[in-house]
């Protein structure tokens, strides 16, 4: 649907004209650039998650069909009523009976108020569509078992530092995932997605109890068109928009190719203001955009590659140790099972709280050193 809407719009012509202009790219690269164009479209498809937003996009591309947009004004009581309705409806679905019976804690975590609220927001508070989306996610989690992915399963994908959770958060307490496309080291879409899922689960696990979103900090230093994989990008969009709704708080494109921003300006009018503001362009040589980093991060903690003062580079050995510690913490939270007394004494998942609200992260981290010996047995 997205591709058809884009192709039918006059803005697509404007984008193609810009891409084909001699001042935009050197000759002979247009086929590769079409792949990049498609990948960028998928990025925006992640942002425009719901059918309601795609309908708004269609109306924006066809002004003659525009109608006044009626935004829902819900009271907290209305929202709670919808959350309860989703929960009670999903319990009756036979498709997730196995999950309820075999993995009741996992079911409870994703049918808590916070989780259901995200699915409702992603579907513009449409109960029927939110139920369908949540059901699909629960079936996916039952089969894919993302909470059982351990470091030893993804270490080969991680060794170049193409994606990792930073040791710092932004000033709002959001976890930060650093992405460096130039360090892609795998041709396996399955392995790439498995590592992405591992990183998403890890970022959620390490988020404070009052924060459900994260930051994506994308470093385009050394980027070239060979880093683009349509298949991987499409699968990434599918995983993020269908199974991690409302998790992306901000995507910072650091030193992207100059043609990224003009393309985004073409798409931006079709997005809701809240959605459009989730993408920020930052250039090391532009003082105006560098203030974005100053406002978001403590510069003493931020890596020098992003204009900060921390000169330490990604160290796979140190990162591996940190991830093993997090695996131990996750085992304690998700299963309540551990090979050590310390890990067993860690707080167990509360069925009435969201995944990232399972316990006080700061409290858990005080026990991490003692739990390092806990290994993943799956």
Element layout with pairings:
Blueprint: H1 2-8, H2 10-20, H3 30-47, H4 51-61, H5 76-91, H6 97-102, H7 104-109, H8 113-122, H9 127-144, H10 151-158, E1 163-169, E2 175-179, H11 189-205, E3 214-219, H12 230-243, E4 248-254, H13 260-267, H14 273-276, E5 279-282, H15 287-296, H16 316-334, H17 341-345, H18 361-365
Parallel strand pairs: 2-3, 3-4, 4-5
Antiparallel strand pairs: 1-2
Helix pairs in contact: 1-4, 2-13, 3-12, 5-8, 5-9, 8-9, 10-11, 11-12
Give an overview of the whole structure.
Residues 369-378 have a biased composition (Basic and acidic residues). There is one protein chain. A five-stranded mixed sheet has the order 1-2-3-4-5, with helices on both faces. The radius of gyration is 21 Å and the shape is globular. Helix 1 packs parallel to helix 4 and helix 10 crosses helix 11 (189-205). Helices cover 51% and strands 8% of the residues. By secondary structure, it is of the alpha/beta class. The two termini are 39 Å apart. The longest helix has 19 residues, at 316-334. The protein has three domains: 76-144; 147-316, Phosphatidylinositol Transfer Protein Sec14p; 319-371, no CATH class.
């Amino acid at each position: 649907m997205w591709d058809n809407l884009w192709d039918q719009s006059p803005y697509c012509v404007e984008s193609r004209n810009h891409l084909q202009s001699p001042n935009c790219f050197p000759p002979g690269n247009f086929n590769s650039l079409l792949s990049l164009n498609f990948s960028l479209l998928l990025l925006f498809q992640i942002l425009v998650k719901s059918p309601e937003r795609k309908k708004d996009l269609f109306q924006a591309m066809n002004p003659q069909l525009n109608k006044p947009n009626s935004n829902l004004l819900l009271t907290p009581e209305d929202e709670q009523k919808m959350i309860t309705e989703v929960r009670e409806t999903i319990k009756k679905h036979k498709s997730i009976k196995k999950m309820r019976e075999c993995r009741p804690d996992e079911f409870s975590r994703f049918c808590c108020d916070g989780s259901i609220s995200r699915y409702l927001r992603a579907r513009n508070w449409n109960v029927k569509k939110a139920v369908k989306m949540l059901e699909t996610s629960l079936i996916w989690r039952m089969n894919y078992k993302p909470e059982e992915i351990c470091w030893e399963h993804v270490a080969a994908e991680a060794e170049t530092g193409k994606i990792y959770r930073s040791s710092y958060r932004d000033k709002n307490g959001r976890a930060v995932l650093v992405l460096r496309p130039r360090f892609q080291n795998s041709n396996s879409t399955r392995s790439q997605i498995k590592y992405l899922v591992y990183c998403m689960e890890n970022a959620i696990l390490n988020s404070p109890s009052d924060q459900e979103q994260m930051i994506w900090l994308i470093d385009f230093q050394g980027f070239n068109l060979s880093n683009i994989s349509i298949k991987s990008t499409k699968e990434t969009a599918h995983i993020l928009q269908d199974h991690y709704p409302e998790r992306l708080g901000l995507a910072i494109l650091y030193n992207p190719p100059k043609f990224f921003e003009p393309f985004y300006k073409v798409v931006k009018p079709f997005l809701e203001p809240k959605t459009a503001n989730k993408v920020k362009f930052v250039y090391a040589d532009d003082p105006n955009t560098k203030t974005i980093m100053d406002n978001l991060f403590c510069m003493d903690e931020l890596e020098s590659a992003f204009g900060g003062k921390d000169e330490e580079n990604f160290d796979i050995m140190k990162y591996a140790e940190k991830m093993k510690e997090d695996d131990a913490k996750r085992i304690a939270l998700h299963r309540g099972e551990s090979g050590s007394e310390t890990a067993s004494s860690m707080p167990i998942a509360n069925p009435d709280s969201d995944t990232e609200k399972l316990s006080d992260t700061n409290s858990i981290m005080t026990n991490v050193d003692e739990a390092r010996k806990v290994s993943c047995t799956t």
